[in-house]
Specification:
Layout (H helix, E strand, L loop, with lengths): L2 E4 L18 H11 L4 E4 L6 H7 L2 H8 L8 E4 L2 E3 L3 H20 L5 E4 L21 H13 L4 E5 L6 H7 L5 E8 L18 E6 L5 H18 L3 E6 L16 H19 L3 E5 L5 H17 L2
Parallel strand pairs: 1-2, 1-5, 5-10, 6-7, 6-9, 7-8, 9-10
Antiparallel strand pairs: 3-4
Helix pairs in contact: 1-9, 2-5, 4-5, 5-6, 7-8, 8-9
The protein binds zinc ion.
Length: 307
């Protein structure tokens, strides 16, 4: 079976203003790179069922978000989370790409999927937009897996260089979810220390210092693998941020593009026998355009090896 890329043109129309690092070119360069491959299936997002939206975020927040998109110009939801008229479709398509990905896997249309979507989601909390993010796309995926398909042990591995405070917020009180993050610390958004264990000891957070290189990262990543093997997930999600790359302008880790192949491969090697290879990966950060396209391509290389 194949790997699917879930993508909509709406993601290129989410205008964040000149000079914003979370820019349309991010998905354009990845798409250009992946379109050269012949081993991928391309699919469009589906709608997110309303009950899943309200299960993941508060009803007040979702209803307020729906009515907050401007008729023209830019609007700031926080200091760096910008939306514009075409952002509404992009935001709900990003969340809906996870629905298409999960349904496709459960209906045996493909084995794994990468949601090539923006805005990212892992900073969006139950009640607030934050850090370029409006909806926790991984949170939506988690709740859909559990409520539609009855999964009992959904693991989300977030290797974005920033702590996914939003993912943590929407998963911490979910007995059927395990949230794992490696991230630069101290750093934006704050938090994500070893003390953040979730309400049911269902979160593992591994803070690492600025300057962390490949060897240091993989030494720490062994703890992620150990926890996954102990947990025996029945479905795996990646909150896949590529801003731990050495060329990324927003953070100070020293990973190479090839390291994202290695992260993916090691993770799937650990979880494959529990998940039967079922994995949905969701794009989060990554702000150097060349490094981003290269790193995503490496990530996909590893996903495909397990098909
Ligand atoms: Zn990030």
């Amino acid at each position: 079976m194949k790997t699917a890329i879930i993508n909509s043109e709406s993601h290129e129309k989410h205008d964040t203003g000149n000079g914003h690092p979370e820019q349309p070119k991010r998905v354009i360069v990845i798409k250009d790179k992946l379109k050269k491959r012949k081993d991928l299936i391309w699919e469009k997002p589906d709608n997110v069922p309303e009950n899943i939206l309200y299960m993941t975020h508060s009803k007040d927040y979702i209803d307020g978000l729906r009515s907050s998109f401007p008729q023209k110009g830019l609007k700031f939801l926080d200091g760096d989370t910008v939306i514009s008229p075409d952002s509404k479709k992009a935001v709900f398509d990003a969340a809906g790409s996870t629905i298409k990905a999960i349904d496709g896997i459960e209906n045996n249309k493909f084995k794994s999927a990468f949601c090539l979507a923006r805005p990212p989601g892992h900073h969006a909390e139950k009640n607030k937009a934050m850090g370029f993010c409006c909806i926790s796309n991984a949170g939506i995926a988690t709740n859909y897996l559990i409520s539609k398909y009855g999964f009992k042990r959904v693991a989300c591995v977030d290797f974005d260089v920033h702590w996914g405070n939003g993912n943590y917020d929407v998963m911490r009180d979910n007995k059927n979810a395990l949230y794992i993050s490696t991230h630069q610390y101290p750093f934006y958004p704050g938090g994500g220390t070893e003390k953040d264990k979730g309400n049911f000891n269902n979160s593992l957070n591994i803070p690492l210092p600025a300057g962390t290189n490949s060897e240091q990262y993989f030494n720490a990543y062994d703890r992620v693998l150990d926890r996954l093997i102990e947990y025996k997930p029945d479905f795996l999600l990646f909150s896949a941020g590529f801003d731990a790359h050495k060329d990324d302008p927003l953070a100070q880790f020293q990973l190479t593009s090839k390291d994202f192949y290695e992260i993916t491969k090691r993770t799937l090697t650990a979880t494959n026998k529990f998940t039967q290879g079922k994995v949905v990966s969701i794009l989060e950060g990554g702000y150097d355009l060349n490094a981003l396209a290269e790193s995503v391509n490496e990530h996909i290389n590893a996903l495909i090896e397990f098909n």
